[in-house]
Amino acid sequence: MKKFIKENSSSFYKLAYENHKSIAVNNHLWHSKIYENILLQTMHCILMLAQTIGFETDKGLEIPISQQVIAKALKTTRMTVNKAVICLEQEKRIIRDRRKIIVLKDKLELPLGDEN
């Protein structure tokens, strides 16, 4: 997806502008439907990471890797991962503790937002 956006950035921005669904901020389309889908997938990946490689702490399941490593694995930007973490934090599914992501034990269920 990232490669596609780089190769077709001008047409990508034109499409988003024509549909009046997005605002280009720092070369990212924060409000487009495409970005919302990428963000939702990233949020799902963070929750799945907690279930697979997370280790249990007194607060919840801690993901032992950084946001940068998650971004590289998902082939996306760290800003996207950070935005996903902020969204999960606002939904009170995770807490951040010194650059660590801790998913709360009772908030691990995957259905998240609209699945369109």
TrEMBL record:
Residue stretches making up the HTH crp-type domain: 36-107
InterPro entries referenced in this protein's UniProt entry, alphabetically: HTH_CRP, WH-like_DNA-bd_sf, WH_DNA-bd_sf
Sequence intervals crossing the membrane: none
Molecular function per GO: DNA binding
Secretion signal, residue range per the UniProt entry: none
Gene Ontology annotations of biological process type: regulation of DNA-templated transcription
Entries under Pfam families matching the protein: HTH_Crp_2
Name the UniProt record assigns to this protein: Helix-turn-helix domain-containing protein
Organism: Ligilactobacillus ubinensis
Phylogenetic placement of the source organism: Bacteria, Bacillati, Bacillota, Bacilli, Lactobacillales
